Amino acid sequence: xxxxxxxxxxxxxxxxxxxxxxxxxxxxxxxxxxxxxxxxxxxxxxxxxxxxxxxxxxxxxxxxxxxxxxxxxxxxxxxxxxxxxxxxxxxxxxxxxxxxxxxxxxxxxxxxxxxxxxxxxxxxxxxxxxxxxxxxxxxxxxxxxxxxxxxxxxxxxxxxxxxxxxxxxxxxxxxxxxxxxxxxxxxxxxxxxxxxxxxxxxxxxxxxxxxxxxxxxxxxxxxxxxxxx
Length: 229
Fold this sequence. Notes:
Radius of gyration: 19 Å
Number of helices: 11
Number of domains: 1
Distance between the termini: 40 Å
CATH architecture: Up-down Bundle
CATH superfamily: MFS general substrate transporter like domains
Number of strands: 0
Order of helices and strands: HHHHHHHHHHH
Helix content: over 70%
Strand content: under 5%
Largest sheet: none
Oligomer: single chain
Shape: globular
């Protein structure tokens, strides 16, 4: 397969019903998160934390809480509907961002930064797990690798754009306005994703997962499996 054929194949998958819409929703859901989190290490540096302090706070505690968040996010995605998982984790993540807004205003000291790091590590990872689960739902089983890769690429694109925007806002107005912008956009993106998927069908697989827990879906035989029996 030539590069041109491969490119057209990817383009066809991108233009498949629902994929392009979901890619736009992923952009909205992730933009505020990426805008804020890209500024955390510079923020901690400007607050006077040295390399060892940042390594302990973000590298040690932050990564440990991400493991906890991955476990909780997986449990939530399995036991409840995709809609509820995205809404709970997305709104919860915004709550953790509010802690950074308060810290940027000079309130709370190092203690608040520890609380914010713990909350963002857990809730931010839960939101990521819920989003990636939705991306897997939307991937056609016959083209799962291609569809999922296309949607995952959107997360990378969001990061590149949001990193630049976050740095520009923080440089012009300071950390508190930048964190506030990130939190507001994260909330708006989460609510926009839920609102759109409530009203427009991305795919039959997304529709099934959107309001049904995995445990109930597993107990419901598919048309193919029913025909086999």
